[in-house]
Specification:
Elements: E1 10-16, H1 22-33, E2 38-44, E3 49-54, H2 61-70, E4 75-77
Antiparallel strand pairs: 1-3, 1-4, 2-3
Length: about 80
């Protein structure tokens, strides 16, 4: 894991629009993993989805989606 994983970890699943190629997939992963509180992000071009493990005290789905939208990748939380 890129950062120390704490006991309180939440996994967010986001539907991400604008994933058109591997370069966009990598960009979205970097945007998410650069946010404070994000431990790991897995982005799938094929699924159009990002799965993010994060500290819920530091980051939430709204902040994740806002960071992606600011970079041109509109996103929304997927509820299981």
């Amino acid at each position: 894991m890129p950062k120390d994983l704490m006991n309180d970890t939440v996994t967010y699943m986001l539907a991400v629009r604008g994933l058109c190629c591997g370069r966009a997939e990598s960009a979205v992963r970097r945007i998410l993993e650069d946010l404070p509180g994000v431990y790991r992000a897995h982005v799938s071009l094929a699924a159009g989805r990002a799965v993010v493990d994060a500290d819920p005290a530091a980051v939430n789905a709204t902040l994740l989606a806002a960071a992606l939208a600011a970079a041109g990748y509109p996103a929304r939380l997927e509820v299981l």
